[in-house]
Amino acid sequence: MTGASTQFLPIYLRDQLALGVLWRELAQRSARHNRGSDLGRALDGVATGIAEDVDTFTDIMRRLDVAPNRLKTGAAVVAERLGRLKLNGRLWGYSPLSRFLELDALVMGIEGKKTLWTTLGTDAGLGARFPDVDFDQLVRRAGAQREALDPFHDAVAAEVFRSPASPAFADDAEARVR
Q1: Coil, strand or helix: which one is 12?
Q2: Is the whole-model pTM more than 0.90?
Q3: Residue 17 and residue 51: Cα distance in Å, rounded?
Q4: Which of left, alpha, beta for 89 (phi over 0: left; psi -120 to 50: alpha)?
Q5: Quick check: helix, strand or coil at residue 82?
């Protein structure tokens, strides 16, 4: 790496690794909280994909000779843990608002990941430098992760934020989450 890339790319990579670790931890926690449901199964798949993405990203950093910043990645894990302390409308336990906030954060993280893979593959020129890394496939995988979560995100949002016009609404929203 030369010039500005020597200065800026490593910083960007370290920051993005920390975010990836945060999303991975969040996806794994959310999958555990929703185990045994259709949403839990979708989250299991997304959590596995995010973990694979973090591994791919770490390998790219290794090949570029960019060491992770342990403070940043550690802070990301701590931030995910602290995020559990937010008010969720219940004194104890998991609430529909918790479920929505987790899904919302994951959807935003997945969208960011699509941008990340495009930036690295095209704008940073890593697609040409590492032809064995299929950045387009990584973007497609992120899109598939988003598609897997979208119906649940919408159903949980409806459950949390809409006033049911009839009892059928509540049953329908709850059925989509399961």
Answers
A1: helix
A2: no
A3: 11
A4: left
A5: helix
